[in-house]
Amino acid sequence: MASSYGTDADKSSLRSNYLAARRTIPARTRIQSDSSILSALKAFPIFAEAPLVLTYVSRAAEVGTLDLIEAVLAEGRRVAVPRVNRDEHAISFHEISSLDELVPGTMRILEPAADVPALDDPAQLVGSVCLVPGLVFDGDGHRVGYGGGYYDRFLAFYPGDKIGLARTTMLSSNPLPTDGHDVPVDFIATEGGVWSCRGR
């Protein structure tokens, strides 16, 4: 895996460094990487067979999910994406049938309209997979995100498989700093395939 900025780096420093590094990746390289990540996911049975996919809606230089959302919907599978509640520092997932249903929400991120009901019963999520964003991941599935703790709060009670999406430049060979509330992902999907973080 790519080298991180050291085991003594705190989350704030890592966040700044990886955000800066991500901005330097040419758009064409990002598009090629994201296409390879999507291909790896499609070949991964846990993802390919999940009837419901929870996924973030990508923006800027994040690993792209818009093509992925359209591909999953075209297969006749279900997709749910998050709405952000900044007051509670929480996210909830809401089912969509088209990208056209999304509207600009918190921080201008595309999300479902306010009247779309949430999948708020854990029983509704059994058998699903959740695609998790991050700036950098380590081999144990720990991640550094944007600092709000939104995903960790959701994942603490999520019953399905958690898959981080990462270009190889977003992988750390050093353990990342963690807090008690951090929830690691179960798998990481990269350009080269999907590998397990369990049992490490």
UniProtKB/TrEMBL annotation:
Highest taxon, organism lineage: Bacteria
Essential cofactor(s): Mg(2+)
SUPFAM superfamilies named in the record: NagB/RpiA/CoA transferase-like (SSF100950)
Gene3D superfamilies (UniProt xref): NagB/RpiA/CoA transferase-like
Catalyzed reactions per annotation: (6S)-5-formyl-5,6,7,8-tetrahydrofolate + ATP = (6R)-5,10-methenyltetrahydrofolate + ADP + phosphate
Alphabetized UniProt keyword annotations: ATP-binding, Ligase, Magnesium, Metal-binding, Nucleotide-binding
Keyword Cytoplasm: no
Pfam family, one: 5-FTHF_cyc-lig
EC number: 6.3.3.2
InterPro entries for this protein: FTHF_cligase, FTHF_cligase-like_sf, NagB/RpiA_transferase-like
Single GO term (MF): 5-formyltetrahydrofolate cyclo-ligase activity
Family recorded in the similarity comment: Belongs to the 5-formyltetrahydrofolate cyclo-ligase family.
Protein name according to UniProt: 5-formyltetrahydrofolate cyclo-ligase
Biological source species: Thermophilibacter gallinarum
